Amino acid sequence: MWNRPRFDLKVRLTLRVAAISAACFAAISAYFLITADRAAHTRIDDIAAIVAKTLELQQGKIQWVASPRSDFPNLDPVSTYVMTPGLCLAFRGTSGDILQRFCSGAPIPASPPPQVFTAFYHGLFDPGREAVRPVIVRGMRLGEVVVSVDPAVQTADAWHEAGRLMLALAIALPLLCVLVYAALARALHPTRMIRTGLEQIAAGDLSARLPPFDLAELSAIRDVFNHLAESLDTALAERAELTRKLIALQDEERRHLARELHDEFGQSLAAIRALAASARQTAAQDCPSLLGECDGIARTATGMMETLRGTLFRLRPPDVEELGLVASLEGLVAGWNGRSRGETRFSIRFDGAFESLPATISASLYRIVQEALTNAAKHAGATKVSLALAMSPSEIALAIDDDGRSHDPATKSGMGLLGMRERVAALRGRLSFEASPNSGSALRVVIPLPAADQPVLERAA
């Protein structure tokens, strides 16, 4: 299944803030350029109006004094006050000819605008537009004033102002990203604690709790998390207690069944053997041909007694509390080595002191090992089974490895493995069953020790 790439939330939010900030800077720059263009056009319109009014006054003065010498139009007086770099003043007569023109030189810019900006600015605005004002005296149109600005000068001025904004953007945007990332990292720091708590819950540590947070949203998550952890802890504790009671009831039923089999079937088989021996004595005197049948009955009864003895051993193993876990497991392994007749080799290794181990844990470990050995020998067809039992002050670890058929469904399911899972769950432990890296199967069981027993275990160790 295709998975989308994952991005860090801080990086994603920082990039979004940077994109929004850049868009805002772009909008501000566009607004500034539009405003600057309007201001430039308003300025040349005002200059055109001033020049036109000045020429009208010049013409009125000439007519008032009735001077035969006419120096109209004269742009020199007004040009002294309004001329700026790149500005052009001109008077166009009624015939359309330019009668007088003044243009100030445009300085060479230190950093000319790029061609891309020039094309963009010329396409968006009209920097070479002329401002025209008519010169009218006593109702007679004498001509018109034409004012314009060199497009290169206006473009250079716009680029200079835009460059200042771009410089501010180049400085402010990275600084803003750093500050936003730092603020987000600080604000999202509790998410690491939430993730750690979830990982602890997933690992089975239901004692994990989250501390109070400053943010209301994270505090709500913290309340839900802690409530969930407490609910799961309570539910698992109740389940473990129920499982413990069911296992205790199951063990009691096994002991009762073992007593019934021993008392009823055992005595009956012993009686059959006695009767077969008596019948053999009688047949030896009166009917020798029945000796074979009597011996067959005796052998059948003996075989049934051996089978019954093995069944009783499985139903009611030796008292682990009296013999101890180490001795009981060593006896179990020795029994399997004896019954397998060399076909399967069983070995066991201990690490730690198990004398002060609670009886409930010892009995459950014995049953788990018993089921695991049966599963490996009968279902997986293993030729080598190794057991390792290690104890620390906080937990007990059981490892069982074999070289059998790990792909056999019977080794991964069935009542045996289900019973092991139930016993491990009753002790609040963890069980894993998987294929071994080389061949065969690997069973791992970890059972935590009660806190009240830890000082005793440490002194015993």
From TrEMBL:
Location(s), subcellular: Membrane
Domain HAMP residue range list: 185-237
GO MF annotations, alphabetized: phosphorelay sensor kinase activity; protein dimerization activity
GO CC term (a single one): membrane
Alphabetical UniProt keywords: Kinase, Membrane, Phosphoprotein, Transferase, Transmembrane, Transmembrane helix, Two-component regulatory system
Transmembrane segment boundaries: 13-34, 165-184
Protein's recorded name: Histidine kinase
Alphabetical list of InterPro entries matching this protein: HAMP_dom, HATPase_C_sf, HATPase_dom, Sensor_HK_TwoCompSys, Sig_transdc_His_kin_sub3_dim/P
CDD domains registered for this protein in UniProt: HAMP, HATPase_UhpB-NarQ-NarX-like
